[in-house]
Amino acid sequence: MRIRSQTDFWCGLLFVAVGAAVIVLAQEYRFGTSARMGPGYFPTLLGSLMAVLGLTLALPALAIDGERLPKLHWRPLAMVLLGIAVFGITLEYLGFVAAIFALVAVAGLADPDLKPIEIALVALFMVLFSTGIFVLLLGLPIRLWPNL
Questions:
Q1: 84 and 130 inside one domain
Q2: Cα torsion through 80, 83, 89, 93, rounded to 10
């Protein structure tokens, strides 16, 4: 079997997988009837519709030509995920400001063309912007600096 439109096929398969997962998880709730719907009725219905939608995408992809999947670039994916992990770890120990700087610095390594000054300027902007939004405007009790 040859997949002629990989984008549609894998997107459809993802829809089927998510729909099936929703159906399986909804089985823990009472289903009910159409007249007296239980808490599992609506998720089961939506999961079924999502799985059917996925099949209508995936099956024609076996017959109709389409674009191929682009090559997956691992470095940006790994650096962004690592940056999020570093943010979570640094936030507790070094505070919000250092955590944002660490996040931007690590995620900035995803693009080899970025210069260190560009990363530093983006980090500074993100610190000012995030602090302004979360601390000043929303009034969230976020620790900005480490407790020394």
A1: yes
A2: -150
Does the structure show a pLDDT above 90 at 72?
Answer: no
Residue 83's CB is within 10 A of a number of other CB atoms, namely: 19
The arithmetic mean of pLDDT across residues 95-109, rounded, is: 95
Into how many domains does the chain fold?
2
Q: What is the pTM of this model?
A: 0.59
| Amino acid 68: pLDDT | 64
Residues 6+ positions from 92 with CB-CB distance below 8 Å: none
What pLDDT score was predicted for residue 65? 72
**By residue range, what is the domain housing residue 96?**
74-137
Q: Is 112 exposed, middle or buried (0-12, 13-18, 19+ CB in 10 A)?
A: exposed
Q: What is the spatial distance between Cα 119 and Cα 59, in angstroms, rounded to a whole number? A: 45
